[in-house]
């Protein structure tokens, strides 16, 4: 049920006053209340909101979550031409390369020496691995021959001393 009250411009809201000429009707309640709210009739079927099968599907929820995350990160899908995408990628790669070069230039002498030593150690490790692989892949007669040489050298050193 809609109730109206009259209001005078610049005055407080008061119940209807027939003496006032410049009154405006202001609705108190815009929507009427449904009948089933006050009735406790168990035979009435109360309305329920329908379930949207698209929104309840797992795929839709995952897609929606991914789109929201991308939008927050600023990675919203954009319809750019392929050439523009390639040019932007090149520009990004160039900026990254410049930053790396600047970082290389800013390295101190100590950092440079440490990098050189690290590279030498890595090379030595690679050489050791190659030798081990060669020894493992070598035929058995070559291994036996190497063992005989070592024992022969050890015997010769023991006799000399």
List keywords for this structure.
single chain, 161 residues, mainly alpha, two-stranded antiparallel sheet, 5 helices, 2 strands
Mean pLDDT metric = 79
User: For the largest beta sheet, what order do the strands appear in spatially?
Assistant: 1-2
Total strands:
2
The total of helices stands at: 5
Low-confidence stretches: 6-15
Structural class: mainly alpha
β-sheet strand percentage: under 5%
Radius of gyration: 44 Å
Summarize the main sheet: 2 strands, antiparallel
Walkthrough of the structure:
With 161 residues, the protein is mostly helical. The protein has a domain at 1-35. Helices cover 58% and strands 5% of the residues. It is built from five helices and two strands, in the order E-E-H-H-H-H-H.
In a few lines, what is going on in this structure?
The chain is mainly alpha-helical. It has helices spanning 53-56, 58-73, 82-105, 109-137, 140-160, and strands spanning 4-7, 24-27.
Element layout with pairings:
Blueprint (H helix, E strand, L loop, with lengths): L3 E4 L16 E4 L25 H4 L1 H16 L8 H24 L3 H29 L2 H21 L1
Antiparallel strand pairs: 1-2
């Amino acid at each position: 049920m809609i109730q109206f009250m009259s209001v005078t411009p610049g005055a407080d809201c008061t119940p209807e006053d027939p003496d006032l000429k410049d009154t405006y009707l202001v609705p108190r309640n815009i929507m009427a209340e449904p009948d089933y709210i006050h009735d406790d009739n168990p035979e009435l079927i109360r309305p329920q909101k329908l379930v949207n099968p698209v929104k309840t599907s797992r795929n839709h929820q995952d897609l929606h979550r991914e789109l929201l995350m991308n939008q927050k990160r600023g990675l919203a899908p954009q319809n750019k031409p392929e050439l523009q995408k390639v040019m932007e990628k090149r520009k990004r790669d160039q900026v990254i390369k410049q930053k790396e070069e600047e970082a290389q230039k800013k390295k101190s002498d100590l950092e440079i020496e440490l990098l050189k030593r690290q590279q030498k150690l890595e090379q030595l490790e690679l050489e050791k691995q190659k030798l081990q692989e060669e020894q493992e892949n070598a035929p058995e007669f070559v291994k036996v021959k190497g063992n005989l040489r070592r024992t022969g050298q050890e015997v010769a050193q023991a006799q000399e001393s």
